């Protein structure tokens, strides 16, 4: 059993849905993104970036990554468009997501 076995069971590619918002772990941090395509052994995620004010936005140049599902540490992230600015997005429970990323990275990176 690998150290990622339990995650593979939770986030099997077959369980992910197109247009589902997820949180993806990288060694240097995490990103919020939308599932765009389910591939044979990976999933294509269109990632948001975080601006200097802590808001989430689509980057000027699209950031689409093909990643292994084992790096998705949170599914069904609640993302809504900001009322005051249509180019920005609000991520509900961002503090909880940050805490979960810290726990994930301590254990797996």
Walkthrough of the structure:
With 109 residues, the protein is an alpha+beta fold. It has one domain (5-108). The protein has helices at 5-10, 94-108; strands at residues 21-26, 29-38, 43-47, 49-50, 56-57, 64-67, 72-74, 79-81, 88-91. Strands 6-3-2-1-7 form a five-stranded antiparallel β-sheet, with helices on one face. It has a four-stranded antiparallel β-sheet with strand order 4-5-9-8, with no helix packed on it. Strand 4 and strand 5 (56-57) form a beta hairpin. The longest helix has 15 residues, at 94-108. It is globular. Residues 4-10 have low confidence and may be disordered.
Are there runs of 5+ residues with pLDDT below 50, and where? Answer: 4-10
Range of helix content: 10-25%
Count of separate structural domains:
1
**Strand percentage:** 35-45%
Note the gap between the termini. 17 Å
Order of helices and strands: HEEEEEEEEEH
SS class: alpha+beta
Oligomerization state of this entry?
Answer: single chain
Q: Average pLDDT value?
A: 88
Biggest sheet, spatial arrangement of strands = 6-3-2-1-7
Write down the Rg: 14 Å
Number of helices: 2
Question: Keywords, please?
Answer:
2 helices; four-stranded antiparallel sheet; five-stranded antiparallel sheet; alpha+beta; 9 strands
Topology of helices and strands:
Elements: H1 5-10, E1 21-26, E2 29-38, E3 43-47, E4 49-50, E5 56-57, E6 64-67, E7 72-74, E8 79-81, E9 88-91, H2 94-108
Antiparallel strand pairs: 1-2, 1-7, 2-3, 3-6, 4-5, 5-9, 8-9
